Automatic annotation (TrEMBL), chain A:
Official protein name in the record: Carbamoyl phosphate synthase small chain
The keyword Zinc belongs to this UniProt entry's keyword annotation: no
Pfam families, A to Z: CPSase_sm_chain, GATase
Region described as CPSase: 1-186
Residue ranges annotated for the Carbamoyl-phosphate synthase small subunit N-terminal domain, each copy included: 11-141
InterPro entries (alphabetical): Anth_synth/Amidotransfase, CarbamoylP_synth_ssu, CarbamoylP_synth_ssu_N, CarbP_synth_ssu_N_sf, Class_I_gatase-like, CPSase_GATase1, GATASE
Catalytic reaction annotation: hydrogencarbonate + L-glutamine + 2 ATP + H2O = carbamoyl phosphate + L-glutamate + 2 ADP + phosphate + 2 H(+); L-glutamine + H2O = L-glutamate + NH4(+)
Catalytic residues of the enzyme: 265 (nucleophile), 355, 357
GO molecular function terms attached to this record: ATP binding; carbamoyl-phosphate synthase (glutamine-hydrolyzing) activity; glutaminase activity
Family assignment from sequence similarity: Belongs to the CarA family.
Subunit structure, interactors included: Composed of two chains; the small (or glutamine) chain promotes the hydrolysis of glutamine to ammonia, which is used by the large (or ammonia) chain to synthesize carbamoyl phosphate. Tetramer of heterodimers (alpha,beta)4.
Source organism: Streptomyces hainanensis
This protein's pathway: Amino-acid biosynthesis; L-arginine biosynthesis; carbamoyl phosphate from bicarbonate: step 1/1; Pyrimidine metabolism; UMP biosynthesis via de novo pathway; (S)-dihydroorotate from bicarbonate: step 1/3
BP-aspect Gene Ontology terms: 'de novo' pyrimidine nucleobase biosynthetic process; 'de novo' UMP biosynthetic process; glutamine metabolic process; L-arginine biosynthetic process
UniProtKB/TrEMBL annotation, chain B:
Name of the protein: Carbamoyl phosphate synthase large chain
Region (Allosteric domain): 958-1106
Binding site for Mn(2+) 3: 835, 847
Molecular-function annotations in GO: ATP binding; carbamoyl-phosphate synthase (ammonia) activity; carbamoyl-phosphate synthase (glutamine-hydrolyzing) activity; metal ion binding
Organism lineage string: Bacteria, Bacillati, Actinomycetota, Actinomycetes, Kitasatosporales
Domain MGS-like: 958-1103
TM ranges: none
Length: 386, 1106
């Protein structure tokens, strides 16, 4: 690239928000058009994990950290088989990456996977806009598309489906069951219902001697119990929990049998619904790796990874009675008092709204996997005594 | 968990004088902490010997002791105040060491004082190298990550050679065991070097043992700032990546926040290790800093060290993130937990989170090697910088270029104006860049321009390839600017996004800076201002802490009240330090109280002025004309502007005054024309002539011929210096014509821009400093300081006393009249500082500076009057009469009419000699002279001069001795005056040593003194040592040496150098000797007590009202 042509060689791109605001920048990754829900993520590290997190399916992710791509792309850090974000919005993409594990550049990866992105936009202005107006639909148009009439582009954005009411888990989950073997001695078997599971989650369980049978989102109660599980796990995933009727019904079956149960993120919302609580869409969600969550049972604060646009509507200040016995809110986000965890008092089940598997993010909440194993252990011991 | 109820009073120890490695950041931390503790209803007792700090303002603590920070004095304070707790983690190493000493002596236990913030055990684990290795090993067991640098212990050369193989090859570090100060250690790059260094090391070691350690030079270097509460909640406030890889002290490195080249996996491992370390060390509440080295080839992590306290890095991290570490550490220390403390910036979210940044912060160190030409200027693991500038941008290039212009050093910003070098020059440039020095990045850029490849740059410097690429990016933008047919909006916006200043663009396009600016404004390319909000805009920020960026949307909010913009002083440097920040902070406080909206502009992360709490709005920006004009523009869009204050921040804002005014910016206070009048010798001479005031003969020269003629006319010795400098930069006493020629040759660079001033040098004169306020009609004499050292030593480097100890009412009257005449003649509205010399009976005017001086905080504290606050008010139109009526100034009298029983304050300068070595590892010359070289100062205050003086010495250098050997060698003119104090020393039991002449006089007066050899006489025939050798051997406890003029001066300096090297008190005037004797007398009789500033002040106010 010669110096004089640096600016001339750029391909223009435009980001159009559903409320009409536009941001102009340069094409990044694949050229073309993409629409989805614009959300912002505040993590300063972990773009590779974010991109491959199935929960971001159909979302245009705005990175608040300006420099993205500095460490390139490696083969160890993806959280699933592909990039899921529908579009990527960054300010200053790396021109050259630097890391001993890097295999290729991020831009090459985005292009190879057909992910349309935009760079050079005022991501802070965009974030403030989303914070004030809430997450909304948006489109990225690059190359020839960027030159199109803005009104026409806006119409394309507005014709895209809404996130509220979207049932997306089946789109991202595995279609075939597979097994993640325990690392070291096998202690437990867990059936993990894949609603958009991240690779780190079964790995964290495997590290604790759990053989994880990952099942498709469409798995039936029979499928779950066919693996003779010591515990059942419901994963994270994209979409509106209000649509996840199949998963809710499946979970109620598990609750009725009092099999130890653990849910993460979408899995927490499913547990909320199974217990009879409602769920609602947050204005702009929690997406980042610096969120303070208080464990109400110990009073300890953990810094946690979040990626959720919906939340459970449960009372913070008292124990609730449900068809499955008493339940309490076990974790709360200190920033905004959003429910971050549920715990049943009469059955071996609990869930958290955030990501103890932490990829990307801090490892403060890894103890929850230990809680799950000790829950399974207790039930096993009781079973042996009985 | 709420606040502890068992602590009602707490003693906070400050960090004392500003020295290299321990600077203004501890005033920032300490001030925050004291305020928080006071707000929590605790009685705060503070000790700090440094008067130029905000923390020692009487409002900040309940009882403020400006006393030496030594275990002896702090024990007296504890005995008097009986605090419940001692918080030692906010005053740097000084506070920590003092607290440990008080613990070990049993003082804390005896008085029932609890150490809070960090336990003795935790401090020991963090600080002791061996214990810390154990910590790292335990952490490795727990987390599976982190290790100490690998090492092998060797007892023979065979062991050593085998050890290298075990460590994986060269280079290796050789550290002989049990040698003093690390003697004999070094890097071995091959077997020859290894045999030499290790051979010597084995011989030097009393146990014939060397430690062979793997070299981690060139590894990536990171720091994490962590906080932990009593509930074991831990947060990582900030990650910092050093652009300069391992081998350069982090204080001397260009550093970047957040870390730029770590994946999440690697970052989380560092975080896990950091948390495990803080737990293992046992820092129960508060902050700590942990440093890591990461092997760029495979990610291996070595944990280098941790500081179990608030540090320079934590101040930087606080400013970089908006997370006030010291403030929160203070709350944690008294029992709060992180989730109970609100985040100041969002007000809605708690402090138990980790800040996330949507910008990049770059810190660039500021060095002062020009002040120490003999010092080795290569950067090593010993810190050498005297200050730093920080800049914030939306990307790295913007932040880096802003930071480089913020350090205000010629040549620091990348210069693309000249032709690039040729490919033949690349190897040479890379070889130069391979050695870390101040300005290495400029050399790297020169190599890039000359055609070096990214790989070559990385190989030579080990700077991470991502950073190297960013430098290439900057070069490409520069090339684009150069090649473009014309400056378009798109191109300018692109250049601005990467941090190019108008001046840089002007250099590239061969235009004037103001032309570039006009074009840019015409094209509508202007910066916006974004907020530092701790959360990347996830939540709304309530605190306007702003930085510029060339982005789309600005966050400056409209306001109603008129704004006063206060320009700060930029990075600390010798001659322009914390004292100026003090005045700026005071202006913020006073003007905010008077109903203005205060807007602070500064780029120094160490200071109180850049605390978002200090002003109503903070712009963390470079102090250049361009950056300030843009802020003024942005603020003028937001609401009315009452004016810009330039007279408080030292030379940096003063230098901008005229250009700002020329651009239509309203400057309040003393006008830029008046400032120029005082700087311009001809015009100033006319002011003096009109007032009938004598000044030493002087002249202004633009060439050697002119200089020669002027010097001959005045008569040697003369004092020469470039005009327009602060801190006496380049100033020298010249004794003859050849020296004058040499001087002009050396300072050709300075002279080309500004003329050289040549003054008569007044030998044997008393130098006097005056700080005064003038409102156009009335003069308020703030204080009169009498220097203890003779004239000719820079006022910043000499000790002084206030009130003056030998001047009478008549002298004060003359000083007052002269000061008033000059203030009126120049047209001062606010502060003025004038230096006088009293030679014989003539009062000469040496110079006048119509601005806040370095001594304003000292004067304010010594007289209990807030001069800087008053100056800020006068700048905006208040009169002295009004301020007297308000109570800000005393109703009657002023600093020239202090009551007889007013306390005496002594200021002593602190020199950085011991930090510097020449390239051969020898100490640098410690000659005091007209060029300022001190980094800081202390104050001793007591009811009598002798005691105050003793305290100032104890605060600066350690206590005066009360017994032992005193060496006396004085000039002829001082011999009479020496006899009584010398006799007093003998009576105190001192053994006297003297050179032959002085010994003879003493003998005639019945005082026995042992004759010792002068340095010029050399060692005696039987190996009798010279006085300098004796000092080096630690045989002398006190030195009295008054200079004799040219020849004698040099011998004295040898003695002085030795004294500094050994840390022995050295008195250079008979006044100082007399003072010291009074001090020793008071010390011996156990009469030296401690007294809070508040007590001194109330006594003074009472006396004034009598």
């Amino acid at each position: 690239m010669t110096a004089t042509t640096r600016t001339a060689e750029r391909t223009p791109a435009v980001l159009v928000l559903e409320d009409g605001r536009t941001f102009r920048g340069q094409a990044y990754g694949a050229r073309g058009e993409t629409v989805g829900e614009a959300v912002f993520s505040t993590g300063m590290t972990g773009y590779q994990e974010t991109l491959t997190d199935p929960s971001y399916h159909r979302q245009l992710v705005v990175m608040t950290a300006p420099h993205i791509g500095n460490t390139g792309v490696n083969d160890e850090d993806p959280e699933s088989r592909r990039i899921w974000v529908a579009g990527y919005v960054v300010r200053d993409p790396a021109r050259r990456h630097s890391n001993w594990r890097a295999r290729r550049s991020l831009e090459d990866e985005l292009t190879a996977q057909g992910v349309v992105g935009i760079s050079g936009v005022d991501t802070r202005a965009l974030t403030r806009h989303l914070r004030e107006r809430g997450a909304m639909r948006a489109g990225i148009f690059s190359g020839a598309e960027a030159a199109a009439d803005e009104a026409a582009l806006l119409a394309r954005v507005r014709s895209a489906p809404q996130m509220a009411g979207a049932d997306l888990a089946p789109e991202v989950a595995t279609t075939e069951p597979y097994v993640v073997p325990a690392i070291g001695e096998k202690r437990f078997t867990v059936a993990a219902v894949d609603l958009g599971i991240k690779g780190m989650t079964p790995h964290r369980m495997a590290q604790r001697g759990i053989e994880v049978h990952v099942l498709p989102a469409t798995a039936t109660l029979e499928d779950v119990y066919a693996v003779a599980p010591d515990g059942v796990f419901f994963s994270n995933g994209p979409g509106d929990p209000a649509t996840a009727d199949h998963a809710v019904a499946l979970m109620r079956g598990v609750l009725e049998r009092s099999t130890p149960l653990f849910g993460i993120c979408f899995g927490n919302q499913i547990l909320g619904r199974a217990l009879g609580f409602g769920t609602f869409k947050l204005k702009y969600g929690h997406r980042g790796i610096n969120q303070p969550v208080k464990d109400l049972t110990t009073g300890k604060v953990e810094v946690t990874a979040h990626n959720h646009g919906f939340a459970v509507d449960a009372p913070l200040d008292r124990v609730s009675d449900t068809p499955y016995g008493r339940v309490e809110v076990s974790h709360v986000c200190l920033n905004d008092d959003v429910v971050e965890g549920l715990r049943l008092l009469d059955r071996p089940a609990f869930s958290v709204q955030y990501h103890p598997e932490a990829a990307a993010g801090p490892h403060d909440a890894a103890y929850l996997f230990d809680r799950f194993t000790s829950l399974m252990n207790t039930v096993l011991m009781e079973g042996q005594r009985a | 968990m709420p606040k502890r109820t068992d602590i009602q009073s707490v003693l906070v120890i400050g960090s004392g004088p500003i020295v290299i490695g321990q600077a203004a950041e501890f005033d920032y931390s300490g001030t925050q902490a004291c305020r928080v503790l006071k707000a929590e209803g605790l009685r705060v007792i503070l000790v700090n010997s440094n008067p130029a700090t905000i923390m020692t303002d009487p409002e900040i603590a309940d009882a403020t002791y400006i006393e030496p920070i030594t275990p002896e004095y702090v024990e007296k304070i504890i005995a008097k105040e009986r605090p419940d707790a001692l918080l030692p983690t906010l005053g740097g190493q000084t506070a920590l060491n003092t607290a440990i000493a008080l613990h070990e002596s049993g003082t804390l236990a005896a008085h029932g004082v609890e150490l809070i913030g960090a336990s003795v055990e935790a401090i020991a684990k963090g600080e002791d190298r061996e214990k810390f290795k154990g910590v790292v090993e335990a952490v490795r067991q727990a987390t599976g990550h982190g290790e100490s640098a690998r090492s092998v212990i060797c007892h023979s050369m065979d062991d050593v050679l085998a050890g290298v193989t075990e460590l994986g090859g060269y280079p290796v570090v050789v550290r002989p065991s049990f040698t003093m100060g690390g003697a004999g250690s070094g890097f071995a790059h091959d077997e020859d070097e290894l045999r030499r260094i290790a051979g010597q090391g084995l011989a030097l070691s009393p146990t014939t043992e060397v430690l062979l350690e793997e070299s981690i030079l060139g590894w990536k270097e990171y720091e994490l700032e962590l906080m932990r509460d009593r509930n074991d909640n831990v947060v990582v406030v900030c990650s910092i990546e050093n652009l300069d890889p391992m081998g350069v002290h982090t204080g001397d490195s260009i550093t970047v926040a957040p870390a730029m080249t770590l994946t999440d996996r690697e970052y989380q491992i560092l975080r896990d290790i950091g948390i495990a370390v803080i737990r293992e060390v046992g820092v129960d509440t508060g902050g700590c800093n942990i440093q890591f080295a990461v092997d760029p080839d495979d990610g291996r992590i070595v944990v280098i060290e941790m500081n179990p306290r608030v540090s320079r890095s934590s101040a930087l991290a606080s400013k970089a993130t908006g997370f006030p570490i010291a403030k929160i550490a203070a709350r944690l220390a008294i029992g709060y937990t992180l989730d109970e403390i609100p985040n100041d910036i969002t007000e809605e979210t708690p402090a138990s989170f980790e800040p996330t940044l949507d910008y990049v912060v770059v810190k660039v160190p500021r060095f002062a090697f020009e002040k120490f030409p003999a010092a080795d200027s290569s950067l090593t693991t010993t810190m050498k910088s005297v200050g730093e500038a920080m800049a914030i941008g939306r990307n790295f290039t913007e932040a880096l270029q802003k930071a480089l212009r913020s350090v205000e050093k010629k040549g620091a910003p990348f210069d693309f104006s000249g032709a690039p070098g040729t490919p033949e020059e690349v190897p040479g440039l890379l070889a130069t860049a391979a050695v870390p020095t101040d300005g290495r990045l400029g050399t790297v850029m020169a190599a890039i321009r000359a055609g070096a490849t990214p790989e070559q740059v990385f190989e030579a410097t080990r700077i991470d390839p991502w950073f190297v690429d960013q430098l290439f990016l900057i070069r490409e933008v520069a090339d684009e600017l150069a090649a473009a047919e014309q400056l378009t909006a798109e191109l300018l916006a692109e250049a601005k996004r990467h941090g190019f200043s108008d001046a840089q663009i002007a250099g590239i396009r061969d235009l004037r800076e103001d032309v570039v600016r006009e074009v840019r404004h015409a094209l509508g390319v202007r910066p916006v201002y974004k907020t530092v909000d701790t959360c990347a805009a996830e939540f709304a920020a309530r605190t306007p802490y702003l930085y510029s960026s060339y982005d789309e949307e600005t966050e400056v909010t409209p306001r109603e009240r008129p704004a006063v913009i206060i320009l700060g002083s930029g990075p600390n440097r010798i001659g322009q330090g914390i004292e100026f920040d003090y005045s700026c902070v005071h202006a913020c406080f006073a003007l905010s109280e008077a109903g203005y909206e205060t807007v602070m502009v500064n780029c120094n992360p160490e200071t109180v002025s850049t605390d978002y709490d200090t002003s109503d709005r903070l712009y963390f920006e470079p102090l250049t004309l361009e950056d300030v004009l843009e802020i003024v523009h942005a603020e003028s869009q937001a609401g009315p502007i009452a004016g810009v204050i330039v007279q408080l921040g030292g030379q940096t804002p003063l230098g901008l005054a005229q250009a700002l005014k020329d651009n239509g910016v309203p400057i309040v206070g003393t006008s830029p024309e008046a400032i120029n009048l005082a700087e311009e010798r001809g015009a100033f001479g006319r002011v003096l002539a009109e007032a009938g005031l004598p000044a030493p003969k002087y002249g202004t020269a633009f060439s050697f011929d002119e200089a020669k003629a002027i010097a001959a006319g005045i008569g040697y010795p003369v004092m020469v210096r470039p005009s327009y400098v602060l801190g006496g930069r380049g100033m020298r006493i010249v004794y003859d014509e050849p020296s004058l020629a040499e001087y002009l040759a050396q300072h050709a660079g300075l002279v080309s821009e500004h003329p050289v001033l040549i003054d008569r040098f007044l030998d044997d004169a008393i130098e006097i400093d005056v700080d005064a306020l003038y409102d156009g009609t009335e003069l308020y004499l703030g204080g009169v300081m009498e220097h203890i050292e003779e004239a000719g030593i820079h006022s910043g480097d000499s000790a002084c006393a206030l009130p003056p100890i030998t001047l009478g009412g008549h002298d004060i009257k003359r000083l007052r009249a002269s000061t008033e005449a000059i203030a009126a003649g120049v047209g001062v509205r606010g502060l003025i500082n004038i230096q006088f010399a009293l030679a014989g009976d003539i009062l000469y005017v040496l110079e006048a500076n119509p601005r806040a001086s370095r001594t304003v905080p000292f004067t304010s504290k010594a007289t209990a009057v807030p001069l800087a606050k008053a100056a800020a008010r006068i700048s905006l139109g208040a009169t002295i009469a009004e301020l007297r009526a308000e109570g800000m100034l005393p109703a009657h009298g002023d600093g020239g009419t202090l009551p007889l029983d007013a306390p005496i304050s002594v200021k002593e300068a602190v020199m950085p000699w011991s930090r510097f070595r020449d390239v051969h590892g020898r100490g640098v010359d410690t000659v005091l002279g007209p060029e300022m070289r001190s980094t800081g100062e202390v104050m001793g205050i007591d009811s009598a001069f002798g005691t105050a003086y003793a305290k100032s010495q104890a605060g600066a250098y350690g206590a005066l001795p009360t017994k032992g050997r005193a060496f006396v060698s004085v000039a002829n003119r001082d011999k009479r005056a020496m006899i009584f104090p010398a006799r007093a020393l003998v009576e105190h039991g001192f053994e006297l040593l003297a050179t032959s002449g002085t010994a003879e006089v003493l003998k005639r007066n019945g005082i026995h003194a042992t004759v010792v050899r002068k340095q010029i006489e050399g060692e005696g025939p039987n190996g009798e040592p010279t006085i300098v050798q004796l000092i080096h051997e630690g045989q002398v406890d006190l030195i009295v040496n008054t200079p004799y003029g040219t020849g004698g001066r040099l011998d004295g300096y040898d003695i002085r150098t030795a004294a500094v090297a050994r840390g022995i008190p050295c008195l250079t005037t008979v006044q100082a000797l007399a003072a010291a004797v009074q001090g020793i007398d008071a010390l011996t009789r156990g009469e030296v007590g401690v007294r809070a500033l508040q007590e001194h002040a109330s006594q003074l106010v009472e006396a004034r009202n009598r």
